[in-house]
Amino acid sequence: MELEKDTLQKLQKHWPTRWKEIIAHCEGLEEKLPTRFNAIEEITRRVQDREHVLKFEDDTLKAIIPKDKLKDGFTYTAMEGTASLCRHVDEARWDEKEGMFWYTRNKFGHTFEDTMHHFADVKEGGLAGFTPIKEK
Fold it and tell me: What is the pLDDT of the chain when averaged over all its residues?
């Protein structure tokens, strides 16, 4: 199998310890499914998908306002598509002293004020983080 030089370099860059295994796996699939599978096309697709994900992640991280740029008492809107990460909150107010966002929460028929971490402070899967991208 002859991969393009650029594809091989990207494969090695993105999976430095597994690139040989990926090639072997795809070659094995090509042998098992010769009429339906093309190893070069599959590897090229995987590399392109990885490039797409990395660009999306980079663009996303660039859009989030860092904590040191937030203004005390200002309300911010969340990044679209982050509802599952930030308790379905569209906007929240930054509290510099607490280092947290305040938002109105509705739970079990009750409405109350609650706090949430900045996205950068989330270290555990169980915590929610607000992803501020714009002052309201």
Answer: 89
Using alpha carbons, list the distances in angstroms from residue 6 to 19, 25, 42, 60, 65: 14, 20, 15, 26, 34
Distance CA 42, CA 58 (A): 24
**pTM for the whole structure:** 0.63
- The 3-state secondary structure of 62-116, one letter per residue: HHCCCHHHCCCCCEEEECCCCCCCCCCCCEEEEECCCCEEEEEEEECCEEEEEEE
Mean pLDDT of the region 32-42: 89
Give yes or no for a contact between 10 and 51, defined as CB atoms under 8 angstroms apart: yes
Q: In terms of Cα–Cα distance, which of 116, 52, 35, 36 is closest to 82?
A: 116
Residue 83 structure tokens: 């509802």
Side-chain-facing half-sphere of 16: CA atoms under 13 Å: 1
Residue type, 74: F
Beta carbons of 56 and 49 less than 8 angstroms apart:
no
- In the chain, where the domains are located: 5-63, 67-135
Reported as type and span, the H/E element at residue 12 is helix 5-14
